[in-house]
Amino acid sequence: MFNTVLVRCLALLLCWLGFHVSALYFLLAVILLNTHHKEIFGW
User: Fold this and answer.
1) Nearest to 11 by CA among 20, 37, 42
2) Membrane-spanning regions, if any (predicted)?
3) Which of 5, 2, 9 has the alpha carbon at shortest distance from 29?
């Protein structure tokens, strides 16, 4: 439960940083989505 919330919050934070700071944060968000898709999407 806690891991799921943590991963979802981190993905949202990285997307927000990608818009406002640097596009390199989108790369980190994509890597996070690829490695933790079960926690984020539930499948």
Assistant:
1) 37
2) 12-33
3) 9
